[in-house]
Amino acid sequence: MYQHGGGVCGSLDDEDVGNEIRLHLQQLGKFFTVEDIIHFCGTPEMLERLGRTKTISLSTALHWLRKNGWRWARHGRAQYIDGHEREDVVKYRNTVYIPKMMELAQRLRRWIEGVGWALPPSVHRAVRVWCHDESTFYAHDRRKVYWAEIGAGALPEPKSEGPSLMIGDF
């Protein structure tokens, strides 16, 4: 009896073959393509394991991805990893920076109803806080859409990807 498509999918369902494909995808990183699976399944070793003379089709590779819990998805937003929570940074922030800013806050001009911006009565010399704003533009900004495993949440990631140009202003 003829089974439509049973030969290829059946051999791709083999646990060892599936593990080899998954291992190959892990080596490529999260931005692999369906074509990467097709090319991998077209290597002499995989053709022999699959019992084939030519590689799998695009639809077979897509079917394998979906069947194994992968979806073409937009990258989830997660917090960035840039050192804000390193032990030495947290210690400095809590023991030096925040106490000093709280001390200086007592000498800032503030809005007083009916008066406007003014110093508190006990303050004779104001402190002015200057804030610095910056934007960074990357040569190869992050890709937003890729094959993601179902249930895989957004992962923390480094702030940058590639060379950058930083623009600063006060």
Record the SSE blueprint.
Blueprint: H1 6-12, H2 15-28, H3 34-41, H4 44-50, H5 58-67, E1 70-74, E2 80-81, H6 87-105, E3 110-112, E4 116-118, E5 133-138, E6 145-149, E7 157-158, E8 164-169
Parallel strand pairs: 2-7
Antiparallel strand pairs: 1-6, 3-4, 5-8
Helix pairs in contact: 3-5
Structure overview:
The structure is a single chain. This protein folds into 2 domains: 6-68; 80-169, no CATH class. 38% of the residues lie in helices and 19% in strands. The chain is built from 6 helices and 8 strands; from the N terminus they run αααααββαββββββ. It has helices at residues 6-12, 15-28, 34-41, 44-50, 58-67, 87-105, and strands at 70-74, 80-81, 110-112, 116-118, 133-138, 145-149, 157-158, 164-169. Helix 3 (34-41) packs across helix 5. The longest helix is centred in the middle third of the chain and has 19 residues, at 87-105.
Overall tally of structural domains: 2
Number of helices: 6
Q: Report strand order across the widest sheet.
A: 1-6
Uncertain residue segments: none
> N-to-C terminal Cα separation, in Å?
76 Å
Structural class: alpha+beta
Helix share, percent: 25-40%
| Rounded radius of gyration (Å) | 28 Å
Protein name: Winged helix-turn helix domain-containing protein
Name its key features.
2 domains, alpha+beta, 19% strand, 6 helices, two-stranded antiparallel sheet, 170 residues, two-stranded parallel ribbon, Winged helix-turn helix domain-containing protein
